[in-house]
């Protein structure tokens, strides 16, 4: 008899305000939320252009008050 195949499934919740990514691991028999680069389990659904580079998530949201015309966020602050 063949061994059990372990599977992983990835889910992405693209929300209008916040987004998150989670994975199902057969090995652990549970879903785990994958933290972003700042260690947070949710990421602002926000993108911005600062004139030199594209910003996403926390970086984009943090500069929204000084660059509102080049920032897209899911709700009004």
TrEMBL record:
<dbReference type="InterPro" id="IPR043129">
    <property type="entry name" value="ATPase_NBD"/>
</dbReference>
<protein>
    <submittedName>
        <fullName>Heat shock protein 70 family</fullName>
    </submittedName>
</protein>
<dbReference type="GO" id="GO:0005524">
    <property type="term" value="F:ATP binding"/>
</dbReference>
<keyword id="KW-0547">Nucleotide-binding</keyword>
<dbReference type="GO" id="GO:0140662">
    <property type="term" value="F:ATP-dependent protein folding chaperone"/>
</dbReference>
<dbReference type="InterPro" id="IPR013126">
    <property type="entry name" value="Hsp_70_fam"/>
</dbReference>
<keyword id="KW-0346">Stress response</keyword>
<dbReference type="InterPro" id="IPR018181">
    <property type="entry name" value="Heat_shock_70_CS"/>
</dbReference>
<dbReference type="Pfam" id="PF00012">
    <property type="entry name" value="HSP70"/>
</dbReference>
<comment type="similarity">
    <text>Belongs to the heat shock protein 70 family.</text>
</comment>
<keyword id="KW-0067">ATP-binding</keyword>
């Amino acid at each position: 008899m063949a061994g059990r195949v372990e599977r992983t499934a990835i889910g992405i919740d693209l929300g209008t305000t916040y987004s998150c990514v989670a994975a199902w691991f057969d090995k652990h028999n549970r879903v785990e939320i994958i933290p972003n680069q700042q260690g947070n389990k949710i990421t602002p659904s926000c993108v911005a252009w600062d004139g030199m580079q594209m910003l996403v998530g926390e970086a984009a949201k943090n500069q929204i008050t000084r660059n509102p015309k080049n920032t897209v966020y899911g709700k009004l602050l």
